[in-house]
Specification:
359 residues, Aspartate Aminotransferase, domain 1, Aspartate Aminotransferase, domain 2, alpha/beta, 7-stranded mixed sheet, globular
Length: 359
């Protein structure tokens, strides 16, 4: 099989797996301790958690704290719901945000969508409504890979007296993240384990807990898994160390993939984009048939969260695509462990199968 779906999830780094095994069992049988217990095993587990916290923090701006969560969706919900009582009611978010942001904003009310242009990029010059208390703009879009001008929106938020939230799930480990008020990230998008994410909270920002009953993370309840934390920490450390190397590798894969899909139309900007994301379309392509014909190539017809819904992508609609154009689009994602041969074989198979639909 050829895996080209890095936006959905990434392969677990060997270093992350090794870091986790010590805290799943361990040669001395001491690795399963509760990090919130005061005895020796608990203190050892807590030390592993705090080391992981330091390593994850290295991905993020200085002057804040890392709060471990079950995933990035929880982190975004904690940020949005937990800050509601300490800010103006309005929430402004880009039209291409993940469902964890836009659905939460709609539930909280007073929500305003910030438009994107045909390239899938927002414009901070568009301004904000007067009652805006929270601005949410993602670093890198999960469907079309566009890089958003988060720093420009941060300036707008500051001027409006609003908090700035950034969904950096697709940007962490790929770019230096801006000094927002709150940043959400996920371990399994940077070659860490599934089941753990983090919310970075700038010093001085206070949130109301959304789950009570322990508050082990100060504002978040639940026993932490030392194994998941350790895997997250190892993956984060590796992402920091390999950021330039990974980017250079991805750039080579992007150039080759673009050559193979030269007859397809690119969705989103070619330049303001993370090049590990290739979202393209070809008029008349039956994507469901394409998936059936190319079962050994793992790719996506949209974001992983929306796959199988039968609904056209809200991101592709936001950049002006018709329903037919959106439904004839595919997304390929590649990264650190993708080989050039895999990109060539996978892309050629997809291109060939699409052409055969008209044979």
């Amino acid at each position: 099989m050829i895996y080209l779906d890095y936006q959905a999830t990434t392969p677990l780094a060997p270093e992350a797996r090794d870091a986790m095994l010590r805290w799943l069992d361990g040669a001395d049988g001491m690795g399963f301790g509760n990090p919130h217990s005061p005895h020796r095993m608990g203190r050892q587990a807590k030390a592993a958690v705090e080391l992981a916290r330091e390593r994850v923090a290295a991905l993020l701006p200085p002057g804040g704290q890392v709060i471990f969560t079950g995933n990035a969706c929880e982190a975004l919900n904690l940020a949005m719901r937990g800050s509601a009582g300490a800010r103006k009611p309005g929430i402004a978010f880009s039209a291409i945000e993940h469902a964890a942001v836009y659905e939460t904003a709609e539930v909280l009310g007073n929500a305003t969508r910030l438009a994107v242009d045909a390239n899938g990029v927002t414009n901070p010059a568009d301004g904000l409504p007067e009652d805006t208390g929270l601005v949410a703009v993602m670093a890198v879009n999960n469907e079309i890979g566009t890089v958003q001008p988060v720093r420009g929106w941060l300036e707008r938020a500051r001027a409006a007296g609003a908090l700035m939230l950034c969904d950096a799930v697709q940007g962490a480990g790929k770019q230096v993240l801006p000094d927002c008020d709150m940043i959400a990230i996920s371990a399994h998008k940077i070659h860490g384990p599934k089941g753990i994410g983090a919310l970075w909270l700038r010093d001085g920002i206070e949130l109301d807990p959304q789950v009570t009953g322990g508050l082990q993370e100060g504002v978040r309840s639940g026993t932490l898994s030392p194994a998941l934390c350790a895997g997250f920490g190892a993956a984060a450390q590796l992402a920091v160390e390999r950021m330039e190397e990974d980017a250079a590798h991805v750039e080579a894969l992007w150039r080759r993939a673009r050559e193979i899909f030269s007859e397809w139309t690119l969705n989103g900007s070619a330049n303001a984009r993370w090049h590990g994301n290739l979202n393209v379309r070809k008029d008349g392509v039956d994507v469901a048939r394409l998936m059936s014909d190319c079962r050994d190539v793992m790719f996506s017809a949209g974001s992983a969260c929306a796959s199988g819904s039968g609904k056209p992508s809200h991101v592709l609609k936001a950049i002006g695509l018709s329903e037919a154009e959106a439904k004839s689009s595919i997304r390929l994602g590649f990264g650190r462990y993708t080989t050039l041969e895999e990109v060539e074989r996978g892309a050629m198979a997809l291109d060939k199968a699409a052409k055969e639909q008209w044979a």
